[in-house]
Amino acid sequence: MTTYDAGEFTLEKVRDYVWEIPQEGEMRVPARILASEALLDEISDDKTLEQLRNTTHLPGIRKYAICMPDGHQGYGFPVGGVAGIDTEDGCISPGAVGYDINCGVRMMKTNLTYDDLQGREEELVDKLFANIPSGLGGGGIYEGDNEDVEAVLNRGMDWALEHGYAVEDDLAHCEDEGYRPEADASKISQKAKDRGKNQIGSLGSGNHFLEVQRVTDVYREDVAADFGLAEEQVVVLIHCGSRGLGHQVCTDYLRDIEQTHQGLLDQLPDKELAAAPAGSQLAEDYYEAMCAAINFAWVNRQLIMHRTRRVFEQVFDRSWEEMEMDLLYDVAHNIAKKEVHDVAVDEDDTDERELFVHRKGATRAFPAGRPEVPEAYRDVGQPIIIPGSMGSGSYVLRGGEHSLAETFGSTAHGAGRLMSRTQAKQEFWGEDVQDALREQDHIYVKAQSGATVAEEAPGVYKDVDEVVRVSDALGIGDRVARTFPVCNIKG
């Protein structure tokens, strides 16, 4: 097959798993979709391809707009989308980052095995649910005043370290060491700060979760050893973001940009792509506000990890240090970062430019040697954590050698939704899903409501195995290990 018929779009096959919407009309670059034909059937079932094509109209976009294998329709910019946009003659788009700024995932290792956990699943899931704040609205592990929130926004994980919620090793194993120096809390509205001050250390709702897992498969033993992973080992996955604060930051700047840069908005096919021109005051303000929200999200996940360590101490009657509950890695997947990339289309040329790399529902996937990779992993490549559904398992990958050339150093961020939340609640009954997971797969799920479980039922998501297979085949993110759920708590 050299083309794929996606209704309005005819995709041209560049090579295995790489498809292209050719540049035409007002498109500034082609659009590329990284997927198998099975995944294309799902990606082409909503407005993902239309949104990806619209993205190519953004000023300063380089090489091509990219959709990852888990892509699906989002707000203006598809979830699973990546765009590298020039910091000099381009723009920055809040919609291409998303409302949950630095929604991301971290994995914590332990020296416990699945045998150590069996028989204690219900006690563990109950204690985690009782101790980790979740659900809509307020309530966090740390509830501070305005000064505390500003310190978190400006300092990131340094604040958590100073207040006893982190150790030095946690910072060393976090993307950017958990700190964006460009952050400026003064660029964030009081309304956003008010929404965040009682949510520091909380999961929230939707697809956010904390999951205790066991490692079931190791694919690259040398890399797994460097990551500290082995079969039957117990690990903990935490997935959440910047809560109401990040949502308000996006809302505030979208409104301001729409009002201030109407001329640019008029050039775009979708107002949801509203962008501030590079070098403008709003572009600078949004970038600094976004970096502050990124810091907030890292602290949020850190406090949840801190509390999780305490729960494990209670359940297993030993210190978290004895259980070696160390951070493997924390990686963001709703973010725009200034990075230098080669944007030459011809492989024989070189044209290095500083870009705003927008990753919305996409994970940074830098290979070995890139200086941004933590020192512990620089010789093997950056860890990538790709959660699946609560019934299918998750994956640990490492940055692939082709990621920089193919995707601005990016890969997928999860399984990707197949079904809207409304449809999911019509198709599934939460209590039935919980019962089936416990009885058939020995997975213990606890949530604020049955509706939350229905919205996140395994059948709501794409096949994460296929998403990861494509990433591995393309060499943008290499499979290292697979994990499977044991306990899961949700908002």
What does this structure look like?
The chain has about 500 residues and is an alpha+beta fold. The protein contains 17 helices and 20 strands. Helices cover about 35% and strands about 25% of the residues. An eight-stranded mixed sheet has the order 1-2-3-4-5-6-14-13, with helices on both faces. Helix 4 (about 120-130) packs across helix 12 (about 280-315) and helix 10 runs antiparallel to helix 12 (about 280-315).
Keywords:
34% helix, eight-stranded mixed sheet, alpha+beta, globular, 491 residues
Annotate the secondary structure layout.
Elements: E1 3-6, E2 9-15, E3 18-21, E4 31-34, H1 37-43, H2 48-55, E5 65-72, E6 79-86, E7 91-92, E8 104-113, H3 114-117, H4 121-131, H5 146-155, H6 157-162, H7 168-172, H8 190-196, E9 209-218, H9 221-227, E10 233-240, H10 243-260, H11 262-266, E11 276-277, H12 281-316, E12 327-332, E13 334-342, E14 352-360, E15 362-364, E16 383-386, E17 394-399, H13 403-407, E18 410-412, H14 421-427, H15 430-441, E19 444-447, H16 450-455, H17 464-474, E20 477-490
Parallel strand pairs: 4-5, 19-20
Antiparallel strand pairs: 1-2, 2-3, 3-4, 5-6, 6-14, 7-11, 8-10, 8-12, 9-10, 9-20, 13-14, 15-18, 16-17, 17-20
Helix pairs in contact: 4-12, 5-12, 8-10, 10-12
